[in-house]
Backbone:
């Protein structure tokens, strides 16, 4: 357990961490209330019998009706304004509402509490309007106000409570008080929900919440930040001490989370990304501290060196630069500023052209050529890889069709296109690929999709079915950069893979590193044993090609043969090749 120096917080939380599972604020009997969906034109979603009785209504109101269309209600504008303010601020609102009764009784003047209800995802999904007609209702409404600061699923304090605590720290702490925020993200948690369902995922979140509680040092404050994130607040009088404490706590949490979580007989292994931000309570406001922790957490997710990252000022600059670049990439995609270059894939037995690999290029209007190493990860993180990948696949297939029409003797050329895990996990991905093939007028056998090992391993159950669907279209499948990831032989046996591509890092060092040479030898033997084709990437020297040929690798690509070529240059390359060698 990490050392945390005892330091009294400015608040004491005596509320139980977990609420009874039977407690459901949407269906509390004996209280006059109705619920509203704020995101669907303020629509009525339920109404209690007590409210119908209290309002003297002759019949229940139609569920799904908007407030504006309920003719028997007056003062609707005031109620609507309170609902919108509740939704936008995620806080309880109060109002006095005058309601005409349908039974002819005098109009009612009611005191209402408009309360946000947070669902299992940690987001606000329902507004509850409590009509306070007696002391019991008033007490219950006050209780619901408290729930505005608690997560319904885990019972932990939520983000609102955390902000409240941080703001109190900011306003009341002495100048020397130091605080640290650990923002904890459960990596790939959406995969759990997609594979096992949201009810199963909710059970895991409860288990994680309880496990994190067992990791807490004295007086640390744990909250559920949002759907797949938790946060912990620690404090000390010395900035080096609070940072040491926070890093030690993060290390301890990582250690404890190495153990799988058992839910419904399933052992689930999860990894965490933790970002840490520290500062003076009296100088750093709550939102800024959380923003810095979030920046560190997101940056950590893009690195493999450490699982915890402490915020540094340069991270803010990088985050701003990445956001700017993301917006520019979005515009570039929309304005057709991206292009494909095509690197020839060559038979090293006779030098003939076998196909091309399509590679995305971005010529920035101010910065010039931006490396794919920079913008492809950004596209994956932002989700832009889905439309970008769809465009690249369509463009590559269209180019291949045009070349074949001009040079029919190259009708057997194969186009290699990289696809990401986000693309593969899109609904009806195989159907989308088939439509592209049909529109381009090429056969599935003329397309090879390249997938990374990480994509296969991390999304095994979901990806396998997609790959099988692609195989029904006669599409070939390759593992890109083989040997740099998991390289699990069991996964090679489970997936319908046709080709292994040797990563250029091994090729670059094969004549100077005995280990690289041996790895290529093993991969070559493996490919031949499993009946797979083998392609070497990054061939730049004759000696490399000769060594690869001796190891049984007869297909390759690299600058020894050609750099990636723009569309017109690739077509010229085909023209100069002449009829393919037999």
Residues:
């Amino acid at each position: 357990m990490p050392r945390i120096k005892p330091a009294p917080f400015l608040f004491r939380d005596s509320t139980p961490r977990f609420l009874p599972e039977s407690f459901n604020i949407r269906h509390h009997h004996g209280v006059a209330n109705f619920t509203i969906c704020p995101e669907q034109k303020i629509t009525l979603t339920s109404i209690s019998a007590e409210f119908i009785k209290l309002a003297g209504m002759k019949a229940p109101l139609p569920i799904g009706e908007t407030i504006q269309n309920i003719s028997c209600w007056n003062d609707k504008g005031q109620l609507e304004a309170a609902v919108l303010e509740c939704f936008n601020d995620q806080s309880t609102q109060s109002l006095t509402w005058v309601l005409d009764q349908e039974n002819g009784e005098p109009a009612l003047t009611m005191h209402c509490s408009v309360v946000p209800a947070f669902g299992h995802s940690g987001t606000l999904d329902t507004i509850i309007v409590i009509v306070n007609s007696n002391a019991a209702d008033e007490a219950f409404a006050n209780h619901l106000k408290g729930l505005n600061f608690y997560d319904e699923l885990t019972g932990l304090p939520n983000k609102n409570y955390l902000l409240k605590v941080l703001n109190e720290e900011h306003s009341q702490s002495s100048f020397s008080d130091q605080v640290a925020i650990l923002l904890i993200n459960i990596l790939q948690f959406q995969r759990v929900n997609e594979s096992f369902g949201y009810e199963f995922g909710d059970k895991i979140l409860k288990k994680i919440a309880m496990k994190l509680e067992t990791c807490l040092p004295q007086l640390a404050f744990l909250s559920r930040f949002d759907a797949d994130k938790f946060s912990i607040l620690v404090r000390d009088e010395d900035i080096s001490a609070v940072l040491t404490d926070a890093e030690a706590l993060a290390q301890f949490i990582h250690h404890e989370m190495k153990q799988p979580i058992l839910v419904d007989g399933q052992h689930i292994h999860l990894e965490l990304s933790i970002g840490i931000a520290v500062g003076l309570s009296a100088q750093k406001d709550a939102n800024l501290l959380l923003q810095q922790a979030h920046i560190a957490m997101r940056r950590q997710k893009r690195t493999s060196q450490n699982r915890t990252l402490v915020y540094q000022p340069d991270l803010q600059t990088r985050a701003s630069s990445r956001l700017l670049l993301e917006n520019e990439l979005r515009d570039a995609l929309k304005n057709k500023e991206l292009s494909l270059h095509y690197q020839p894939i060559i038979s090293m037995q006779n030098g003939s052209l076998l196909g091309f690999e399509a590679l995305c290029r971005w010529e920035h209007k101010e910065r010039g050529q931006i490396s794919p190493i920079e913008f492809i990860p950004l596209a994956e993180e932002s989700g832009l890889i889905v439309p970008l990948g769809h465009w690249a696949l369509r463009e590559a297939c269209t180019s291949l069709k045009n070349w074949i029409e001009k040079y029919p003797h190259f009708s057997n050329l194969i186009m290699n296109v990289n696809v990401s895990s986000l693309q593969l996990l899109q609904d009806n991905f195989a159907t989308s690929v088939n439509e592209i093939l049909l529109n381009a007028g090429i056969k599935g056998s003329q397309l090879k999709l390249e997938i990374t090992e990480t994509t296969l391993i991390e999304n095994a159950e979901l990806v396998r079915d997609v790959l099988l669907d692609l195989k029904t279209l006669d599409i070939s499948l390759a593992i890109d950069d083989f040997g740099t990831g998991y390289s699990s032989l069991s996964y090679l046996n489970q997936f319908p893979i046709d080709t292994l591509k040797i990563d250029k890092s091994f090729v670059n060092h094969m004549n100077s590193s005995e280990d690289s040479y041996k790895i290529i030898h093993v991969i070559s033997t493996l490919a031949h044993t499993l009946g797979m084709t083998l392609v070497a990437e990054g061939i730049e020297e004759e000696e490399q090609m000769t060594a690869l040929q001796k190891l049984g690798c007869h297909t390759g690509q690299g600058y020894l043969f050609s750099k990636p070529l723009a569309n017109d240059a690739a077509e010229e390359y085909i023209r100069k090749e002449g009829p393919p060698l037999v």
Remarks:
- Residues 1-31 have pLDDT under 50 and may be disordered.
- DSSP finds 20 helices and 21 strands in the chain.
- Residues 18 and 155 are 4 Å apart (CA to CA).
